[in-house]
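$ fold --in a.seq
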Amino acid sequence: MAGRHPHPHHHLLVGAVLIFTIAGVSSSVSGCDSCVHQTKVSYFSNASALLSGACGYGSMAVGLYDGGRIAAAAPAIFKDGAGCGACYQMSCKDTSMCKKEGTTVMVTDLNTNNQTHFVISSRAFMAMAKQGNERNLLKLGILEVDYKRWGSRQVGPL
Protein backbone atom coordinates (compact mmCIF):
# COMPACT_ATOMS: atom_id res chain seq x y z
CA MET A 1 0.00 0.00 0.00
CA ALA A 2 3.04 2.25 -0.21
CA GLY A 3 2.41 5.27 -2.33
CA ARG A 4 -1.34 5.26 -1.64
CA HIS A 5 -2.67 8.77 -1.12
CA PRO A 6 -5.48 9.49 1.33
CA HIS A 7 -8.82 10.65 0.02
CA PRO A 8 -8.53 14.35 -0.97
CA HIS A 9 -11.13 15.37 1.63
CA HIS A 10 -9.69 13.21 4.43
CA HIS A 11 -8.16 16.24 6.19
CA LEU A 12 -11.60 17.93 6.29
CA LEU A 13 -13.16 14.89 7.93
CA VAL A 14 -10.37 14.69 10.52
CA GLY A 15 -10.75 18.42 11.24
CA ALA A 16 -14.51 18.12 11.67
CA VAL A 17 -14.16 15.15 14.03
CA LEU A 18 -11.58 17.06 16.07
CA ILE A 19 -13.80 20.16 16.35
CA PHE A 20 -16.83 18.13 17.47
CA THR A 21 -14.72 16.18 19.97
CA ILE A 22 -13.29 19.37 21.49
CA ALA A 23 -16.74 20.99 21.60
CA GLY A 24 -18.22 17.92 23.28
CA VAL A 25 -15.49 17.74 25.91
CA SER A 26 -15.72 21.47 26.56
CA SER A 27 -19.49 21.42 27.04
CA SER A 28 -19.38 18.35 29.30
CA VAL A 29 -16.81 20.00 31.57
CA SER A 30 -18.40 23.45 31.74
CA GLY A 31 -21.94 22.18 31.60
CA CYS A 32 -25.00 24.26 31.07
CA ASP A 33 -25.40 27.36 33.25
CA SER A 34 -29.21 27.10 33.31
CA CYS A 35 -29.25 23.32 33.88
CA VAL A 36 -29.77 21.77 37.29
CA HIS A 37 -26.83 19.65 38.45
CA GLN A 38 -26.47 17.30 41.41
CA THR A 39 -23.57 17.21 43.84
CA LYS A 40 -22.66 17.10 47.50
CA VAL A 41 -21.97 20.16 49.61
CA SER A 42 -20.28 20.61 52.99
CA TYR A 43 -19.67 23.70 55.11
CA PHE A 44 -16.77 25.66 56.55
CA SER A 45 -16.34 24.68 60.19
CA ASN A 46 -13.79 27.46 60.77
CA ALA A 47 -14.90 31.03 60.07
CA SER A 48 -11.32 32.18 59.45
CA ALA A 49 -11.24 30.02 56.30
CA LEU A 50 -13.74 32.45 54.81
CA LEU A 51 -11.23 35.29 54.98
CA SER A 52 -8.49 33.65 52.93
CA GLY A 53 -10.32 32.85 49.70
CA ALA A 54 -8.50 32.40 46.39
CA CYS A 55 -10.55 35.18 44.77
CA GLY A 56 -8.75 37.76 46.91
CA TYR A 57 -11.82 39.28 48.57
CA GLY A 58 -10.36 38.84 52.06
CA SER A 59 -12.60 40.08 54.88
CA MET A 60 -14.88 41.74 52.29
CA ALA A 61 -16.09 38.26 51.27
CA VAL A 62 -18.47 38.04 54.21
CA GLY A 63 -20.17 41.32 53.24
CA LEU A 64 -20.23 40.77 49.49
CA TYR A 65 -23.22 38.49 49.23
CA ASP A 66 -26.36 38.07 51.30
CA GLY A 67 -24.82 38.26 54.76
CA GLY A 68 -21.94 35.90 54.08
CA ARG A 69 -23.56 33.16 52.02
CA ILE A 70 -20.34 32.34 50.23
CA ALA A 71 -18.70 29.23 48.81
CA ALA A 72 -15.49 27.56 47.74
CA ALA A 73 -16.07 25.80 44.41
CA ALA A 74 -14.43 22.80 42.74
CA PRO A 75 -11.86 23.54 39.99
CA ALA A 76 -14.39 22.88 37.18
CA ILE A 77 -16.63 25.62 38.63
CA PHE A 78 -13.85 27.91 39.88
CA LYS A 79 -12.23 27.88 36.40
CA ASP A 80 -8.83 29.31 37.43
CA GLY A 81 -10.54 32.33 39.01
CA ALA A 82 -13.02 33.03 36.21
CA GLY A 83 -15.72 31.60 38.50
CA CYS A 84 -15.05 34.19 41.22
CA GLY A 85 -18.22 36.09 42.06
CA ALA A 86 -20.53 33.64 40.28
CA CYS A 87 -23.71 32.87 42.20
CA TYR A 88 -25.35 29.47 42.53
CA GLN A 89 -28.76 28.49 43.85
CA MET A 90 -28.73 25.17 45.69
CA SER A 91 -31.35 23.14 47.48
CA CYS A 92 -30.93 20.14 49.73
CA LYS A 93 -32.54 16.95 48.45
CA ASP A 94 -33.67 15.83 51.94
CA THR A 95 -37.15 17.37 51.89
CA SER A 96 -37.87 16.24 55.46
CA MET A 97 -35.12 18.53 56.79
CA CYS A 98 -34.71 21.18 54.10
CA LYS A 99 -36.77 24.00 52.62
CA LYS A 100 -37.68 23.66 48.97
CA GLU A 101 -36.21 27.06 48.01
CA GLY A 102 -32.73 26.32 49.42
CA THR A 103 -30.15 29.12 49.42
CA THR A 104 -27.93 31.10 47.08
CA VAL A 105 -24.16 31.41 47.45
CA MET A 106 -21.39 33.40 45.76
CA VAL A 107 -18.05 31.79 44.84
CA THR A 108 -15.15 33.41 46.71
CA ASP A 109 -12.66 30.53 46.93
CA LEU A 110 -11.32 27.35 45.36
CA ASN A 111 -12.37 24.01 46.88
CA THR A 112 -9.68 21.37 46.46
CA ASN A 113 -11.33 18.57 48.45
CA ASN A 114 -12.61 15.77 46.25
CA GLN A 115 -15.66 14.93 48.37
CA THR A 116 -17.87 17.87 47.35
CA HIS A 117 -18.16 20.43 44.56
CA PHE A 118 -18.91 23.20 47.07
CA VAL A 119 -17.88 24.02 50.61
CA ILE A 120 -20.19 26.79 51.78
CA SER A 121 -20.46 29.05 54.81
CA SER A 122 -22.33 27.57 57.78
CA ARG A 123 -24.81 30.46 57.41
CA ALA A 124 -25.64 29.31 53.85
CA PHE A 125 -25.70 25.65 54.92
CA MET A 126 -28.20 26.36 57.71
CA ALA A 127 -30.29 28.57 55.39
CA MET A 128 -31.33 25.41 53.52
CA ALA A 129 -32.91 23.93 56.67
CA LYS A 130 -36.55 24.00 57.62
CA GLN A 131 -37.11 26.05 60.76
CA GLY A 132 -35.78 24.16 63.78
CA ASN A 133 -33.58 21.79 61.73
CA GLU A 134 -30.51 24.05 61.39
CA ARG A 135 -28.39 22.22 63.99
CA ASN A 136 -29.47 18.79 62.73
CA LEU A 137 -28.37 19.77 59.23
CA LEU A 138 -24.97 20.87 60.55
CA LYS A 139 -24.57 17.51 62.29
CA LEU A 140 -24.94 15.74 58.93
CA GLY A 141 -21.92 17.65 57.62
CA ILE A 142 -22.46 16.77 53.95
CA LEU A 143 -25.68 17.15 51.98
CA GLU A 144 -26.81 16.05 48.54
CA VAL A 145 -28.04 19.10 46.64
CA ASP A 146 -29.38 20.22 43.31
CA TYR A 147 -27.67 23.40 42.08
CA LYS A 148 -27.60 25.76 39.14
CA ARG A 149 -26.03 29.05 38.15
CA TRP A 150 -28.12 31.89 39.51
CA GLY A 151 -28.41 35.45 38.23
CA SER A 152 -25.82 37.37 36.29
CA ARG A 153 -23.89 39.02 39.11
CA GLN A 154 -20.19 38.29 38.84
CA VAL A 155 -17.59 40.28 40.75
CA GLY A 156 -14.48 38.46 39.49
CA PRO A 157 -11.18 38.00 41.32
CA LEU A 158 -9.45 40.94 43.00
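$ fold --in b.seq
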Amino acid sequence: MPEEEYYASQGVRNSKSYFETPHGKLFTQSFLPLDPTLPIKATVFMSHGYGSDTGWMFQKICMSYANWGYAVFAADLLGHGRSDGIRCYLGDLNKVAAASLCFFKSVRVSDEYKDLPAFLFGESMGGLATLLMYFQSEKDLWTGLIFSAPLFVIPEPMKPSKVHLFMYGLLFGLADTWAAMPDNKMVGKAIRDPEKLKIIASNPRRYTGKPRVGTMRELARQCEYVQNNFDKVTVPFLTVHGTADGVTCPTSSKMLYEKASSEDKTLKLYEGLYHSLIQGEPDESANLVLADMRAWIDERVERYAPKCNGSSWSMDQDHLSMLKMDVEVGRPNRRYMWQVTYCFLRLSRFTFSSTLGNKMS
Protein backbone atom coordinates (compact mmCIF):
# COMPACT_ATOMS: atom_id res chain seq x y z
CA MET A 1 0.00 0.00 0.00
CA PRO A 2 1.42 3.45 -0.91
CA GLU A 3 2.38 5.56 2.11
CA GLU A 4 -0.20 8.24 1.39
CA GLU A 5 -2.98 5.66 1.29
CA TYR A 6 -1.73 4.03 4.48
CA TYR A 7 -1.74 7.28 6.43
CA ALA A 8 -5.15 8.21 5.01
CA SER A 9 -6.46 4.85 6.22
CA GLN A 10 -5.22 5.83 9.70
CA GLY A 11 -7.06 9.16 9.52
CA VAL A 12 -4.00 11.40 9.17
CA ARG A 13 -1.95 13.35 6.67
CA ASN A 14 1.80 12.75 6.87
CA SER A 15 4.69 14.72 5.46
CA LYS A 16 8.44 14.10 5.69
CA SER A 17 11.34 16.51 5.27
CA TYR A 18 14.85 17.34 6.42
CA PHE A 19 15.69 20.31 8.62
CA GLU A 20 19.14 21.90 8.91
CA THR A 21 20.34 22.90 12.38
CA PRO A 22 23.71 24.22 13.62
CA HIS A 23 24.32 20.74 15.07
CA GLY A 24 23.35 18.60 12.07
CA LYS A 25 20.53 17.71 9.74
CA LEU A 26 17.34 16.21 11.18
CA PHE A 27 14.78 13.96 9.56
CA THR A 28 11.36 15.31 10.51
CA GLN A 29 7.73 14.30 10.14
CA SER A 30 4.35 15.92 10.63
CA PHE A 31 1.04 14.21 11.35
CA LEU A 32 -2.13 16.23 10.84
CA PRO A 33 -5.84 15.36 10.92
CA LEU A 34 -6.96 13.97 7.56
CA ASP A 35 -9.64 16.64 7.10
CA PRO A 36 -7.80 19.95 6.48
CA THR A 37 -10.94 21.96 7.29
CA LEU A 38 -11.01 20.81 10.91
CA PRO A 39 -9.57 23.27 13.44
CA ILE A 40 -6.29 22.30 15.09
CA LYS A 41 -6.57 22.21 18.89
CA ALA A 42 -2.85 22.59 19.63
CA THR A 43 0.61 21.53 18.51
CA VAL A 44 2.49 18.59 20.02
CA PHE A 45 6.23 18.10 19.49
CA MET A 46 7.40 14.52 20.04
CA SER A 47 10.77 12.91 20.82
CA HIS A 48 11.36 9.15 20.69
CA GLY A 49 13.51 6.95 22.89
CA TYR A 50 17.02 5.50 22.73
CA GLY A 51 17.84 3.55 19.56
CA SER A 52 14.44 4.25 18.02
CA ASP A 53 13.12 6.75 15.46
CA THR A 54 9.92 8.60 14.57
CA GLY A 55 8.66 5.87 12.25
CA TRP A 56 7.72 2.24 12.76
CA MET A 57 5.80 1.84 16.04
CA PHE A 58 6.51 5.28 17.53
CA GLN A 59 4.31 6.89 14.90
CA LYS A 60 1.34 5.12 16.51
CA ILE A 61 1.54 7.77 19.23
CA CYS A 62 1.86 10.57 16.67
CA MET A 63 -1.15 9.34 14.70
CA SER A 64 -3.24 8.95 17.84
CA TYR A 65 -2.74 12.61 18.77
CA ALA A 66 -3.42 13.70 15.18
CA ASN A 67 -6.69 11.76 15.26
CA TRP A 68 -7.66 13.72 18.37
CA GLY A 69 -7.30 16.99 16.47
CA TYR A 70 -3.68 17.91 17.20
CA ALA A 71 -0.89 18.91 14.82
CA VAL A 72 2.01 16.60 15.65
CA PHE A 73 5.64 17.22 14.71
CA ALA A 74 8.46 14.77 15.37
CA ALA A 75 12.18 14.57 14.60
CA ASP A 76 14.63 11.70 14.64
CA LEU A 77 17.12 12.68 17.34
CA LEU A 78 20.70 13.24 16.21
CA GLY A 79 22.41 9.87 15.98
CA HIS A 80 19.10 8.12 15.35
CA GLY A 81 16.98 7.05 12.40
CA ARG A 82 17.56 9.18 9.33
CA SER A 83 19.14 12.16 11.10
CA ASP A 84 22.85 13.01 11.06
CA GLY A 85 25.34 11.62 13.54
CA ILE A 86 27.05 8.42 14.61
CA ARG A 87 24.40 5.82 15.38
CA CYS A 88 23.25 6.15 18.97
CA TYR A 89 26.14 8.35 19.99
CA LEU A 90 24.95 10.97 22.47
CA GLY A 91 28.22 12.49 23.61
CA ASP A 92 26.57 15.87 24.19
CA LEU A 93 22.87 15.52 24.93
CA ASN A 94 22.51 19.29 25.21
CA LYS A 95 23.36 19.57 21.51
CA VAL A 96 21.02 16.70 20.65
CA ALA A 97 18.20 18.48 22.48
CA ALA A 98 19.13 21.85 20.95
CA ALA A 99 18.97 20.42 17.43
CA SER A 100 15.43 19.11 17.89
CA LEU A 101 14.46 22.32 19.65
CA CYS A 102 15.57 24.31 16.57
CA PHE A 103 13.03 22.43 14.46
CA PHE A 104 10.28 22.48 17.07
CA LYS A 105 10.64 26.23 17.67
CA SER A 106 10.55 26.98 13.95
CA VAL A 107 7.11 25.39 13.81
CA ARG A 108 5.93 26.64 17.18
CA VAL A 109 6.53 30.33 16.31
CA SER A 110 5.31 30.07 12.70
CA ASP A 111 2.34 32.20 11.68
CA GLU A 112 0.18 29.12 11.29
CA TYR A 113 0.68 27.80 14.82
CA LYS A 114 2.06 30.60 17.02
CA ASP A 115 -1.28 31.36 18.69
CA LEU A 116 -2.12 27.76 19.58
CA PRO A 117 -1.16 25.93 22.77
CA ALA A 118 2.06 23.94 22.33
CA PHE A 119 3.16 20.81 24.18
CA LEU A 120 6.44 18.89 24.30
CA PHE A 121 6.17 15.09 24.44
CA GLY A 122 9.04 12.76 25.30
CA GLU A 123 9.22 8.99 25.63
CA SER A 124 11.98 7.24 27.60
CA MET A 125 15.35 8.85 26.76
CA GLY A 126 13.34 11.27 24.63
CA GLY A 127 11.79 12.41 27.90
CA LEU A 128 15.23 13.38 29.15
CA ALA A 129 15.90 15.25 25.89
CA THR A 130 12.48 16.90 26.17
CA LEU A 131 13.19 18.19 29.66
CA LEU A 132 16.52 19.60 28.46
CA MET A 133 14.65 21.35 25.61
CA TYR A 134 12.31 22.85 28.17
CA PHE A 135 15.26 24.14 30.23
CA GLN A 136 16.80 25.61 27.05
CA SER A 137 13.58 27.40 26.04
CA GLU A 138 12.32 30.90 26.70
CA LYS A 139 9.74 31.30 29.44
CA ASP A 140 6.14 30.72 28.34
CA LEU A 141 7.15 29.08 25.05
CA TRP A 142 5.45 25.81 26.03
CA THR A 143 1.96 25.27 27.41
CA GLY A 144 2.79 21.92 28.96
CA LEU A 145 4.90 18.75 28.97
CA ILE A 146 3.96 15.09 28.52
CA PHE A 147 6.29 12.27 29.54
CA SER A 148 5.89 8.57 28.83
CA ALA A 149 8.22 6.42 30.97
CA PRO A 150 10.87 9.17 31.02
CA LEU A 151 14.52 8.42 31.71
CA PHE A 152 15.42 10.65 34.64
CA VAL A 153 16.78 7.91 36.92
CA ILE A 154 18.86 5.02 35.56
CA PRO A 155 17.96 1.68 37.20
CA GLU A 156 20.84 0.02 39.03
CA PRO A 157 21.18 -2.89 36.53
CA MET A 158 21.41 -0.36 33.68
CA LYS A 159 23.89 2.06 35.25
CA PRO A 160 27.25 2.35 33.48
CA SER A 161 30.14 0.85 35.39
CA LYS A 162 32.30 3.53 36.96
CA VAL A 163 35.29 1.26 36.40
CA HIS A 164 34.54 1.05 32.67
CA LEU A 165 34.04 4.80 32.39
CA PHE A 166 37.27 5.49 34.29
CA MET A 167 39.32 3.10 32.16
CA TYR A 168 37.96 4.44 28.88
CA GLY A 169 38.42 7.96 30.20
CA LEU A 170 42.16 7.33 30.39
CA LEU A 171 42.17 7.26 26.59
CA PHE A 172 41.44 11.02 26.53
CA GLY A 173 38.16 10.75 24.69
CA LEU A 174 39.41 8.40 21.97
CA ALA A 175 37.03 5.71 23.22
CA ASP A 176 34.00 8.00 23.45
CA THR A 177 32.30 6.61 20.35
CA TRP A 178 33.24 2.99 20.98
CA ALA A 179 30.27 0.63 21.27
CA ALA A 180 31.92 -1.12 24.18
CA MET A 181 29.64 -0.81 27.20
CA PRO A 182 27.76 -3.86 28.55
CA ASP A 183 24.48 -4.49 26.73
CA ASN A 184 21.52 -5.22 29.00
CA LYS A 185 19.15 -6.15 26.13
CA MET A 186 16.62 -3.45 26.86
CA VAL A 187 14.06 -4.40 24.19
CA GLY A 188 12.96 -7.56 25.99
CA LYS A 189 12.46 -5.54 29.17
CA ALA A 190 10.45 -2.87 27.39
CA ILE A 191 7.87 -4.79 25.35
CA ARG A 192 5.19 -7.01 26.91
CA ASP A 193 3.23 -7.94 23.76
CA PRO A 194 5.20 -10.65 21.86
CA GLU A 195 3.68 -9.75 18.48
CA LYS A 196 4.59 -6.09 18.90
CA LEU A 197 8.07 -7.14 20.00
CA LYS A 198 8.52 -8.88 16.64
CA ILE A 199 7.44 -5.75 14.77
CA ILE A 200 9.74 -3.47 16.76
CA ALA A 201 12.67 -5.87 16.42
CA SER A 202 12.24 -5.82 12.63
CA ASN A 203 12.73 -2.05 12.37
CA PRO A 204 15.78 -1.69 10.08
CA ARG A 205 16.65 1.70 11.60
CA ARG A 206 16.63 0.51 15.21
CA TYR A 207 20.06 0.52 16.83
CA THR A 208 20.98 -2.96 18.08
CA GLY A 209 24.66 -2.52 18.98
CA LYS A 210 26.20 -2.14 22.41
CA PRO A 211 25.88 1.25 24.12
CA ARG A 212 28.66 3.69 23.29
CA VAL A 213 31.00 4.83 26.03
CA GLY A 214 30.22 8.53 25.62
CA THR A 215 26.49 7.87 25.45
CA MET A 216 26.35 6.10 28.80
CA ARG A 217 28.59 8.67 30.45
CA GLU A 218 26.39 11.49 29.15
CA LEU A 219 23.10 9.85 30.13
CA ALA A 220 24.37 9.38 33.69
CA ARG A 221 25.52 13.00 33.83
CA GLN A 222 22.31 14.45 32.44
CA CYS A 223 20.08 12.33 34.67
CA GLU A 224 21.89 13.77 37.66
CA TYR A 225 21.52 17.27 36.21
CA VAL A 226 17.76 17.11 35.70
CA GLN A 227 17.21 15.54 39.12
CA ASN A 228 18.91 18.59 40.62
CA ASN A 229 16.71 20.92 38.56
CA PHE A 230 13.24 19.38 38.81
CA ASP A 231 12.15 22.36 40.88
CA LYS A 232 12.62 24.61 37.82
CA VAL A 233 9.70 22.93 36.05
CA THR A 234 6.76 25.32 36.36
CA VAL A 235 4.43 24.44 33.47
CA PRO A 236 1.60 21.89 33.60
CA PHE A 237 2.78 18.34 32.95
CA LEU A 238 1.63 14.74 32.80
CA THR A 239 4.06 11.91 33.48
CA VAL A 240 3.10 8.24 33.14
CA HIS A 241 5.01 5.08 34.04
CA GLY A 242 4.49 1.33 34.29
CA THR A 243 5.33 -0.22 37.65
CA ALA A 244 7.03 -3.18 35.92
CA ASP A 245 9.26 -0.96 33.78
CA GLY A 246 12.62 -2.71 33.43
CA VAL A 247 14.33 0.06 31.46
CA THR A 248 13.61 3.31 33.33
CA CYS A 249 12.64 3.70 36.97
CA PRO A 250 9.08 4.69 37.92
CA THR A 251 11.06 6.69 40.48
CA SER A 252 11.81 9.07 37.58
CA SER A 253 8.19 10.13 37.33
CA LYS A 254 7.66 10.16 41.09
CA MET A 255 10.66 12.43 41.70
CA LEU A 256 9.58 14.88 39.00
CA TYR A 257 6.06 14.99 40.42
CA GLU A 258 7.27 15.57 43.98
CA LYS A 259 9.94 18.18 43.21
CA ALA A 260 8.50 20.18 40.30
CA SER A 261 7.19 23.66 41.12
CA SER A 262 4.25 23.32 38.73
CA GLU A 263 0.85 23.96 40.27
CA ASP A 264 -0.80 21.75 37.64
CA LYS A 265 0.94 18.36 37.63
CA THR A 266 -0.31 14.82 37.13
CA LEU A 267 1.35 11.45 37.81
CA LYS A 268 -0.16 8.18 36.62
CA LEU A 269 1.31 4.77 37.43
CA TYR A 270 0.04 1.64 35.69
CA GLU A 271 0.29 -1.56 37.69
CA GLY A 272 2.20 -4.33 35.90
CA LEU A 273 2.85 -2.41 32.68
CA TYR A 274 6.29 -2.47 31.06
CA HIS A 275 8.41 0.36 29.67
CA SER A 276 6.86 0.84 26.24
CA LEU A 277 3.39 1.84 27.40
CA ILE A 278 1.82 2.37 23.98
CA GLN A 279 3.85 0.55 21.31
CA GLY A 280 4.70 -2.47 23.45
CA GLU A 281 1.64 -3.23 25.56
CA PRO A 282 -1.43 -5.25 24.51
CA ASP A 283 -4.00 -2.95 22.90
CA GLU A 284 -6.25 -2.92 25.97
CA SER A 285 -3.48 -1.52 28.18
CA ALA A 286 -2.11 0.81 25.49
CA ASN A 287 -5.57 2.26 24.87
CA LEU A 288 -5.96 2.95 28.59
CA VAL A 289 -2.76 5.00 28.58
CA LEU A 290 -3.79 6.83 25.41
CA ALA A 291 -7.21 7.62 26.89
CA ASP A 292 -5.58 9.17 29.96
CA MET A 293 -3.25 11.21 27.76
CA ARG A 294 -6.14 12.43 25.65
CA ALA A 295 -8.21 13.43 28.66
CA TRP A 296 -5.27 15.33 30.13
CA ILE A 297 -4.30 17.30 27.02
CA ASP A 298 -7.91 18.04 26.01
CA GLU A 299 -8.54 19.50 29.45
CA ARG A 300 -5.42 21.69 29.26
CA VAL A 301 -6.37 22.99 25.82
CA GLU A 302 -9.83 23.84 27.17
CA ARG A 303 -8.22 25.53 30.15
CA TYR A 304 -5.43 27.49 28.46
CA ALA A 305 -6.61 28.51 24.97
CA PRO A 306 -8.02 30.57 23.37
CA LYS A 307 -8.45 33.00 26.25
CA CYS A 308 -12.08 33.77 27.09
CA ASN A 309 -12.22 34.70 30.75
CA GLY A 310 -15.73 34.84 32.13
CA SER A 311 -17.79 37.38 30.23
CA SER A 312 -14.71 39.17 28.85
CA TRP A 313 -13.46 38.19 25.43
CA SER A 314 -9.68 38.46 25.54
CA MET A 315 -8.83 37.75 21.89
CA ASP A 316 -6.52 40.62 20.96
CA GLN A 317 -7.20 43.17 18.26
CA ASP A 318 -4.37 41.86 16.05
CA HIS A 319 -6.22 38.56 15.70
CA LEU A 320 -9.45 40.34 14.83
CA SER A 321 -7.65 42.51 12.28
CA MET A 322 -6.09 39.45 10.64
CA LEU A 323 -9.47 37.78 10.47
CA LYS A 324 -11.00 40.92 8.97
CA MET A 325 -8.24 41.24 6.36
CA ASP A 326 -8.51 37.59 5.35
CA VAL A 327 -12.27 37.86 4.94
CA GLU A 328 -12.00 41.12 2.98
CA VAL A 329 -9.72 39.52 0.40
CA GLY A 330 -11.94 36.46 0.21
CA ARG A 331 -9.51 34.17 2.02
CA PRO A 332 -11.04 33.12 5.35
CA ASN A 333 -8.47 32.06 7.90
CA ARG A 334 -10.00 28.95 9.46
CA ARG A 335 -7.90 29.03 12.58
CA TYR A 336 -8.87 32.58 13.53
CA MET A 337 -12.49 31.93 12.54
CA TRP A 338 -12.43 28.94 14.87
CA GLN A 339 -11.02 31.09 17.67
CA VAL A 340 -13.79 33.66 17.18
CA THR A 341 -16.45 30.92 17.15
CA TYR A 342 -14.88 29.26 20.19
CA CYS A 343 -14.93 32.49 22.19
CA PHE A 344 -18.50 33.30 21.21
CA LEU A 345 -19.60 29.83 22.34
CA ARG A 346 -17.77 30.21 25.63
CA LEU A 347 -19.22 33.68 26.10
CA SER A 348 -22.73 32.44 25.28
CA ARG A 349 -22.40 29.61 27.77
CA PHE A 350 -21.20 32.03 30.46
CA THR A 351 -24.03 34.47 29.72
CA PHE A 352 -26.65 31.72 29.80
CA SER A 353 -25.31 30.36 33.09
CA SER A 354 -25.25 33.84 34.64
CA THR A 355 -28.80 34.61 33.47
CA LEU A 356 -30.10 31.29 34.75
CA GLY A 357 -28.38 31.85 38.07
CA ASN A 358 -29.92 35.31 38.42
CA LYS A 359 -33.41 33.98 37.67
CA MET A 360 -33.06 31.17 40.19
CA SER A 361 -31.91 33.60 42.85
